[in-house]
Design brief:
Blueprint lengths: L10 E10 L5 E6 L5 E3 L2 E3 L6 H13 L2 E14 L9 E13 L9 E7 L1 H4 L8 H14 L2
Parallel strand pairs: 1-6
Antiparallel strand pairs: 1-4, 2-3, 2-7, 5-6
């Protein structure tokens, strides 16, 4: 266990959404909280929310898109990320969802840019810590669905 780390919010349950459009591209967003590295939309679970509902809510709030949850594709733990703006201990669940409509309207307090990209090309971007693991899990999930 790492000593002398202070996690002011305790252990946080969070997640992100891999949003797929009809062309098979996924949405990457750039976040100031992650030192302007590419991430996926998402955030904290609220008390009483389930994982799928919370990440659809968070992703819709951050992007303006209407979404449909498909499955949880990745989960894990991230302790004191080198990329996150403050010390944090995250337990995360990342979901796969599809667009149902709407147009992108980024929530600019947290996000400053977006990009639609093929999943394999997303892995070549400057991703924040653990997002490569999530995208690889999504790619495996899609292959297993065929």
């Amino acid at each position: 266990m790492k000593k002398n780390l202070k996690f002011t919010k305790g252990i946080e349950v969070v997640g992100s959404a891999i949003i797929e459009n009809p062309k098979g591209q996924i949405l990457l967003v750039r976040s100031q909280k992650w030192h302007n590295k590419w991430t996926l939309p998402g955030g904290h679970l609220e008390p009483g929310e389930n994982i799928l509902t919370s990440q659809i809510r968070e992703a819709q709030e951050e992007t303006g898109l209407k979404l449909k949850a498909i499955a949880i594709v990745a989960w894990g733990e991230l302790i004191n990320s080198k990329d996150f703006y403050r010390p944090a201990h995250f337990i995360y669940f990342d979901i796969y969802c599809r667009t149902k409509g709407g147009r992108i309207r980024l929530e600019t307090r947290e996000l400053n840019k977006y990009l639609w990209v093929a999943p394999d090309q997303a892995l070549k971007k400057n991703l924040a810590e653990t997002y490569d693991k999530t995208i690889k899990a999504f790619i495996r999930f899609k292959k297993n669905q065929k």
